[in-house]
Amino acid sequence: MGELIKNGIRVDGRKPDELRRIKIEAGVLYRADGSCYLEWGGNKILAAVYGPREALPRHIQDPTKALVNARYNMASFSVQERKRPGPDRRSTEISKVTSEALEAVIFTELFPRTTIDINIEVLDAEAGTRCAGITAAAVALADAGIPMRDIPVACAAGKVDGVVVLDLTREEDQGGEADLPIAIAPRSEEILLLQMDGHLTYKEFEEAIELAIKGAKQVSKLQKEALMRKYKKVE
Amino acid sequence: MGELIKNGIRVDGRKPDELRRIKIEAGVLYRADGSCYLEWGGNKILAAVYGPREALPRHIQDPTKALVNARYNMASFSVQERKRPGPDRRSTEISKVTSEALEAVIFTELFPRTTIDINIEVLDAEAGTRCAGITAAAVALADAGIPMRDIPVACAAGKVDGVVVLDLTREEDQGGEADLPIAIAPRSEEILLLQMDGHLTYKEFEEAIELAIKGAKQVSKLQKEALMRKYKKVE
Amino acid sequence: MGELIKNGIRVDGRKPDELRRIKIEAGVLYRADGSCYLEWGGNKILAAVYGPREALPRHIQDPTKALVNARYNMASFSVQERKRPGPDRRSTEISKVTSEALEAVIFTELFPRTTIDINIEVLDAEAGTRCAGITAAAVALADAGIPMRDIPVACAAGKVDGVVVLDLTREEDQGGEADLPIAIAPRSEEILLLQMDGHLTYKEFEEAIELAIKGAKQVSKLQKEALMRKYKKVE
Amino acid sequence: MDMFGKISAVKKDYLLGLAKEGKRVDGRGFDEYREITIERNVIKNAEGSAKVKIGNTMVMAGIKLEIGEPYPDSPEEGTMTTSVELPPLASPEFEPGPPTPDAIEIARVIDRGIRESEYIHLDKLVVEPGEKVWIVFIDIHVLDYDGNLFDAGSLAASAALQNAIIPNERHELGDNAPLPVGKPPISCTFVKFGDSIVVDPNLDEEQVAEARFTVALDENGDIRATQKGLAGSFTLDEIKNNINRARIHAKNIRKLLEE
Amino acid sequence: MDMFGKISAVKKDYLLGLAKEGKRVDGRGFDEYREITIERNVIKNAEGSAKVKIGNTMVMAGIKLEIGEPYPDSPEEGTMTTSVELPPLASPEFEPGPPTPDAIEIARVIDRGIRESEYIHLDKLVVEPGEKVWIVFIDIHVLDYDGNLFDAGSLAASAALQNAIIPNERHELGDNAPLPVGKPPISCTFVKFGDSIVVDPNLDEEQVAEARFTVALDENGDIRATQKGLAGSFTLDEIKNNINRARIHAKNIRKLLEE
Amino acid sequence: MDMFGKISAVKKDYLLGLAKEGKRVDGRGFDEYREITIERNVIKNAEGSAKVKIGNTMVMAGIKLEIGEPYPDSPEEGTMTTSVELPPLASPEFEPGPPTPDAIEIARVIDRGIRESEYIHLDKLVVEPGEKVWIVFIDIHVLDYDGNLFDAGSLAASAALQNAIIPNERHELGDNAPLPVGKPPISCTFVKFGDSIVVDPNLDEEQVAEARFTVALDENGDIRATQKGLAGSFTLDEIKNNINRARIHAKNIRKLLEE
Fold first, then answer.
1. Which residues pair with C182 in a beta bridge?
2. C or N: which end of chain D has fewer Cβ atoms within 10 Å?
């Protein structure tokens, strides 16, 4: 404790309300209907969208709307200790909350009996992969032309050495007091995903969630710039 | 040997032909179509019946009768060494012979293309759980209004210190010479389930199975009393 | 090195271009549509064919042809260290290349929407089981009356102590420099299966594959004799 | 992925209509829990156990302790693991098989509440430092499902841990001892449908819910874990409001645990 | 759950009709086994093996021994485990995949017969007391399925164990030695359809059977294991009668094993 | 079992027609690879990594090293294991779940090329003889699938191994060191449709292919592994011809690796 922030500066040189370096590229895959490559600090994420396409087997079809099926997966080499391939409990939970957060903005009722499949591959991981994954997936959805009422975006805040900070690094996540990842619809500021673990007073919680929303809105700009670059390239 | 029965009295104070304390309550669950809570010595069992309902996927349907599908499951905390969740070979066998024993009395031909699902959860285990489970399941079936030609009931006999005894405890099961669980249709005394392992001469086998039938008929009375109490409550 | 061939004679007394003892019997099973028992050196193989029969579930059906589905399985007791039951990566690969090799000669277009299931059980293993399995499966297919443009046959060659040899034993497989199993349609000499691992110069490769073809054609005679004996018996 | 099967649009309209008049389908107020009962020490073979009912929802938690290895990065701490079983006994929608995403989410949220509030004193569960520690298995078995498994499961786990013992005798490590625990977290769950947000949803309400929010609070009312679920959203004000409502509920529920 | 797929009602009527006249579909008497053959030492890689045919049913048993740990509650005994494989080779109804309930039931009943008759002298299979013991794997592989796998599997297992060796040499523990065994159990199976009970059912009879009964007898004719199966019932007299019939059959089958 | 789903007969006719004129669907000659690019050291958490593109096909290989036990029959050698993931990200036909037969075949053929050419010096990966050795995990993750995963995966694995390190520091075994490797194998794949055999098939060509042939060559042009796939056949002359064509391609591809 007391080692992660010195004179208001964090271990990687950032200020408390500063994001890590983020790089977003839309439309990077040949086969997928929409895709995105995203680097966020040390995270490297690839997201691909397929659909809407017929949901199979048929008994899973919903006659009133499209199913939104996000799958978060970590490559075995993306973490220091090799991860066994296949889903574990953590990735199952992240896939579920990611699916729900993204479904919240998609006009699913336009595509009954179909599925929209969103694949998030974490190729290199350094804390904050779920936010990076949702952010990349949202760009891939837009790139695939899936009608949405807003382009979701995610960001985390947390508490480190008693200070509420934006966008935790691995050391801060491990040595800090709380982590609070959110996803929002940036125009309405509706909260699509909200998880938190650690210890926050009510005041700190308010401060953290407001900081995370602020951070998410910055990331939202980068998403839109990436999509603009893609459209320009295509023209 | 020679330690489990002294002066004709068993380790828990019972006589050779005496049952453990049994408590049966019908209709204990809100969601299930029929249910039963049963305590039998140290065993605590909950049974629930769902159905008859459409068998799915359709290719498993039998156009001539209902499928009877009992599932015996031990809660992970029901035994001294924590049991890993999910079926093992022992519970798979018990589920199979339980399904068959119960199907034998159900008028399955009245409900073609359906399934009758019987769930037996062992919450606390102390020897004799399969008999306790069948006994509870039979009450749950009656509580669900499933038409049966009789209400099945189960009980075990065995051999301990050379003596044929009724309804073994855990010490008797482990230190004894044989265990013989049966299920019967009590009115006709037909045998619906019969397993046995250990060592019995033909004479001892005869003696044991007859003692088990006698025990089962006592338990049958408790089943009927439990169902009567339930009906009275409902009136 | 230099221990496996002495004076042109191999550890089991064979010459470099000599096959192990092979015994083939067609039509050995009661339930299967076609079957074959084959001993090849220390290998003991049983093959059974079922079909053509309706492919189920229906969504796997091919409306233009039969599916050919070979399953190579080693009995748990067929190897020195007990093998855990069920498919592993090796047997999955062998099943796949075996299916493809056999499909190449079957008139699959005659049986749309069906499956032809070929089961190969290795009961005792001593190097060369995949060639033995394909050879047995081909006889079982013929025994089942499946229309084929030729009866496939398999054989391996390899390199041991610098010498290209036919039909490796276990010691030669483990201590040798290369193993090259093939399957052919013997009349046309088309190559249906070809795998190889080890180290061969281009010259050696040519020599080995030609030796394997020569060996396979000898085995082909034994297959036909076995089928003849079966037909004679039936008459 | 969907716990509830097909949802009747009629039911949704009915509940939304009621909610506009400030009413719930079972007559409760928006900020009213169903009756909660806790029964402890119900399973002899478990090191600790509790049966919790919230209305018709019934959940059993059993605690087992085994000896195992610590995690390499915390060699002087015991470990804990939380699982939720949704057996077909408890609902016509539950099927046998490995844990569904629903079961995993519930287990992980309950686990975070217990872990982050440091309810179990893991540092006191060391047998041989770096070599052998106690593993605390928290197994939550749903017996009757009528909504709100997050709160029922969390409460059952807390109550079961409260009276659990360390089975030293079984491992020839001396006398059995109480499991060292601090103050339990209290979980409080809301669902939103239309413009209404109600606490302690029953099954009907879960079936029509658009969004769900769970918060685990410690004895000071501080926040130890939160989870938003389902394919709807909350505004920031709604989230803040939920937490303030939860702080009141948590005090009342905490009293039940301390009885 | 059903090994046999759809059962032809026509076949059932035909077999019931025959049975009323005291006849069976393959011409046997009610108390007549099909021809039984035993071939031993057929698998070089196995520590013991036997191929058993009962009529058209053919089963192979292979014995493998490995070194492992004893169970904590019997540190001075080797262990045994029995499995039955129903590979798609043996029947059009068998499918690849993990053991079905049918396969598990057969394996467990055979296992109980062997275990309860103390056929394998597990106390002589200790390598280092409390640390290392021999594990005896009894793997029963069905090759051709025409009914009565309980008896065919049990007989194959008994014959394979009879000639099995302890592979000491492979583990550098001295010379190979015969596996220490006593007297094998003999399994005898009946099925009931209508009022008739026949021994050694073939596939047709299994498909129409209402109830099945298996008993494993030791060399004195004492009972070591029984199993009633299928969704029908037996009267107590029928059970007693089955056992008395089995005691005669077992004597004859035992002679085959002792040849 | 089929990676490609339903194949359009129209597409097949079109490609066969083109082939008769010596043309391919994307304008290449029969003996022309698509553009190959190799990017190294792309994953910080991996001990080695490379991203390889062959045309639109994109594959990532990551190397991880862990300490484990040697195989009993080679106590003084490290071990290696190769896996291929076909995640649903890379193609609409790929589904989540355990490795398919396609993925297993690709992984095993790539593994044989690396193993048989002794690319990794396993004898230099011993930590404690007989007790602890390095396990080299070669994980190949397909990112975009437009045909020829055998060659793309093999090349990515070779490039990733080329720059991999032994993470001694993480295990307190001294300084990190380069993974000891020799000369990589080069994999070269052909498919046949009609009378034509083309190198480096794209997805369209794989979908109409009747037979596939892969050969892994060492730096001398010697043969280390071959694999024929699919339900068609090759003549002996075609096989020989393929190998001779491959020896030329391999030289060119090897240059890319040595840049």
1. C155, C194
2. C
Q: How far out from the chain centre does Cα F196 lie? A: 23
Query: Is A8 part of a structural domain of the chain?
Result: no
Chains D and C: 3 or more CB pairs within 8 Å of each other: no
Measured CB to CB, residues of chain C less than 8 Å from chain F are: 67-69, 89-90, 92-93, 95-97, 99-101, 103-104, 180, 185, 188-202, 205-206, 209-210, 213
Examine residue A41 and state whether it is found in any structural domain, yes or no.
yes
Mean pLDDT of chain C: 96
CB-CB under 8 Å, B73 with D87 = yes
Confidence of residue F11 (pLDDT cuts 50, 70, 90): confident
Residue E223 lies in a domain: yes
- Phi then psi for residue A212, to 5 deg, are -65, -40
Rounded to a whole number, what is the distance in Å from the CA of B231 to chain E's nearest CA? 29
Nearest to D223 among A68, A200, A210 (CB): A200
Smallest CA–CA separation between E225 and chain C, in Å?
Answer: 26
Say which CATH number the domain at D125 has.
3.30.230.70
- What's the structural domain count of chain C? 1
pLDDT of residue C88: 97
Q: What is the pLDDT along chain A (235 residues), one digit of tens a residue?
A: 468 999 999 999 999 999 999 999 999 999 999 999 999 999 999 999 999 999 988 889 999 999 999 999 999 999 999 999 999 999 999 999 999 999 999 999 999 999 999 999 999 999 999 999 999 999 999 999 999 999 999 999 999 999 999 999 999 999 999 999 999 999 999 999 999 999 999 999 999 999 999 999 999 999 999 999 998 876 6
Quick check: is D109 in a domain? yes
Q: What residue of A is the nearest CA neighbor of D113?
A: A197
Residue F7 included in any domain? no
Say whether residue F163 is in contact with chain A using an 8 A CB cutoff: no
The Cα–Cα gap between E230 and E250 comes to 23
The token duo for D255 is 């009293």
The beta strand positions in chain C, using DSSP E, are: 5-6, 9-10, 22-26, 34-40, 43-54, 67-74, 114-124, 153-160, 163-166, 178-185, 190-200
C96 with F218: Cβ contact below 8 A: no
ipTM of the complex: 0.95
User: How many domains are contained in chain E?
Assistant: 1
Chain F and chain C touch, per 3+ beta carbon pairs within 8 A: yes
- Count Cβ atoms within 10 A of the Cβ of residue B170 and give its class: 0-12 exposed, 13-18 middle, 19 or more buried: middle
Q: Which domain holds residue D162?
A: 28-258
Question: Is there a domain that residue E19 lies in?
Answer: no
Per-residue pLDDT, E11: 87
User: Ramachandran region of residue E223, left (φ > 0), alpha (ψ -120 to 50) or beta?
Assistant: beta
Q: What is the DSSP string of C104-166?
A: TTB-GGGSTTEEEEEEEEEEE--S-HHHHHHHHHHHHHHHTT--BSS--EEEEEEEETTEEEE
The DSSP output letter for F141 is E
> Are the beta carbons of D229 and A191 separated by less than 8 Å?
no
Nearest chain E Cα distance for residue B55, angstroms:
13
Contact yes or no for A71/F88 (Cβ under 8 A): yes
- Distances in Å between the Cα of E7 and the Cα atoms of B63, C33, E96, E134 are 12, 20, 22, 44
Domain that holds residue B196: 14-232
Burial class (CB in 10 A: 0-12, 13-18, 19+), F212: buried
In this prediction the pTM is 0.96
Structure tokens at D173: 């490590």
In a domain, A184, yes or no: yes
B29 contacts D143? CB cut-off 8 A: yes
Helices (H), E117-235: 149-162, 203-208
Q: Which of residues 36-55 of F touch A (CB under 8 A)?
A: 42-46, 49
Whether residue C123 and residue E60 make contact (CB cut-off 8 A), yes or no, is: yes
Q: How many CB atoms lie within 10 A of CB E100?
A: 18
